[in-house]
Design goal:
- The protein is of the alpha+beta class.
- It is built from 4 helices and 4 strands; from the N terminus they run ααααββββ.
- It has helices spanning about 15-20, 30-40, 45-50, 60-70, and strands spanning about 75-85, 90-100, 105-120, 120-130.
Length: about 160
């Protein structure tokens, strides 16, 4: 038995497999998102296209998606947050980070995805790439309190070594 690529800890046949095979639709937005990750990992490009909201399929670049799936080693999925997207909802969002390597180099795809439910079926609507927050550096003046918490001025404490 093969573990499901989505990282649920269950085997593929008891997790995303029934969705990928078309046996039944994903019951929640998160289940659809996990099955789409599994589709990338198992290179099931038809499933990726079929789970797009029909009116958004016009810009689906099958060759690009197939190339990305085939040249990547899919190494893990982290579901970071969900909002709505349950069985009784009509829309929802899932924030996730998909981990993969290309030519031995690690990458992370961080996305906030939107899903809609129509006719008792969840569809992927779109996603926004979440960029890393810029690193900020706070300049400490010589006469400022030392950030180490000693109570001394920075110039007489940790700043003395600089």
């Amino acid at each position: 038995m093969t573990d499901c690529p989505c990282g649920s800890g269950r085997v593929l046949n008891d997790c995303c497999g029934p969705y990928l095979s078309g046996e039944r639709p994903a019951p929640t937005a998160e289940a659809l998102m996990r099955s789409r990750y599994s589709a990338f990992a198992t290179r099931q490009i038809d499933y990726l296209e079929e789970t797009l909201l029909p009116e958004t399929r016009g810009d689906f670049d099958r060759d690009h998606v197939a190339n990305w799936a085939e040249t990547s080693q899919w190494t893990g999925l982290d579901v970071l947050a969900t909002a709505k997207g349950g069985e009784a909802d009509s829309d929802g969002t899932v924030e996730f980070a998909a981990h993969f390597t290309v030519s031995g180099r690690a990458h992370r795809h961080h996305e906030l995805s939107r899903f809609v439910k129509r006719d008792d079926r969840w569809w992927y609507l779109d996603g926004t790439i979440v960029l890393p927050k810029p690193r900020t550096v706070t300049k400490i003046g010589r006469n400022d309190p030392c950030p180490c918490g000693s109570g001394q001025k920075h110039k007489k404490c940790c700043g003395a070594a600089a």
